[in-house]
Structure formats: structure tokens, C-alpha cells
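note to self: dont lose this again. the chain is below, predicted strucutre after it. 279 aa total, dont forget to put it in the shared folder this time
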Amino acid sequence: MLTLVVMAAGLGSRFGGTKQLAAVGPDGEAFLDFAIRDALDASVSKVVLVVRSDIEDDIRCHIATRHPEVPVAFVCQDHHGPPRARPWGTAHAVLAAAAEVNGTFLVVNADDYYGRSVYQTLCSTASSLPANRALLAGYRLDRTVPELGKVSRGVCSVNATELVALVETHGINRLSDGSIVAADPAGIVAADATVSMNLWMFPHRLFGLLERGFSRFLDDHGHDGEAEYLLATVVAELMGAGELTVGVVPTSESWVGITNPDDLEVARRQIAKTRQPNA
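---
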């Protein structure tokens, strides 16, 4: 069974509302509606939504209305691990879904649009994915930088099709001359650089590795209300320890997302260019 795990527990503090349900599509779709539809079309047979308990009812109602025929499991991230005000991070969100996943699985963000074809490409390899192998969708940087504002991206070093390193790069924005710069690490970033948008395919074995790592994380950072157990960091550590290899699957799709309220109209225009109602 191939499962889609949708990380939908983010606070969305800069957006100022339940960003996971923001209407961006021509028929009022949220980003997660496109993710569910595109993944099912690519042979996914189950969906797991990782949410917060305070927004669970709203998301359940949305899913029941828009996807009544889809087998969807709901997991509250804040019911897993020690309680605190903010979620424990993306790796913990994936770990929270463990009981609902049987076999290979995809991971996506609820507030990103990834494009149809990338799901098809990743899912076509699911049956042959080794237990120590993951896949990452690799986007061109210039197709992921919004018209307004600054963003963070995981900039990848790739050897042929193998992920060598992933550097979290912050304050990325496009200048008036079209060049792309970053604040940390500071400098110009190549427009065709490969970046991660957090669309992964993992073997089921990852859950055991995440559980082991989260126990260590709590020992080291459990007292810190801001520390996050992050998926990209965990993957890098597993690669360094020789426990996981990661193949990068390039895509020509363009990413669409929202961070601030001002991004919403831009996202709607971008989605309208690529999606038609009910498509």
C-alpha cells in the first residue's frame, strides 16, 4: 500500500489563519485538495493528514465535503510526544503518522502546490524502493521563488542523481535585475540550483529511525520550547551515518505556496494558469 502523509499541523502564524484550508484553486480548492487528488491519480491508496487538535474538526469537515470517497486517517501531532505550545517539527509530524502507514509513503506539506507530474514520477518507483533508500523531488530554484517576499529553501548538492548535501538557506528573494540572492548563507544563488520543497518518498523503515532519533532529540532539546525535530536534518544525519541514501528526482513543475496574506492572490493567479475546475 502506498500512502500519502500530509503535514498539516503548522501554526501559520505569519498568515494569520488556517493556512491549510486557504482557497487557492479555481473551484475553491485548498493546496491539500490538489495533493490528495494528484496522489490518488498516481496510485496512492490511502491519505494520512497530520493536524493539530484545534483545527482537526475544520479539516475533517473540509475533507468530508470535498473527498467523501477517499480513505483518510487523521492524526493529531500534539497528541504525540511531550505537550508544548508549538509542534515539535516536521520529522516529528511524520513520526506521528507511523501507526497509520503500512509500506512506502510520500510526505508533502499541506500548504504547497507541487504539480501533477511529480507525483506520477515518484509513485512509478514505489514498488522497487529499497529499505535504505529515499527519493526527493528536486525543483529548480527559480520556479520556487515567489513574486513577493523572502523564503527559505533547502539548496541541494547533487552528484548525478544522488543527494550529497542539503543546506537550509534563508532570506532568498529575487532582485529587480532577476538575480536571486540569499541572506543566510549570504550570496547569489544560481537560478537553476536544485532545491527541496519537502516532497519525499520514504521506505517504512524510516519510522524506526525517526523514533530512535526523536528520543535523542528530547534528551538534548526537550527543555527548549523553540527547538524543532526537522525532517531535512534527520535525513542528513542518516545519510552521514550510511543508513539512508537519497535519490533526487528532477521536475520541471513550478511550486506555488503562501506564507503571508499578500501571497494569496498571487497563488490564485498561478494556480489558475495550471489548473481548471475539477481538474
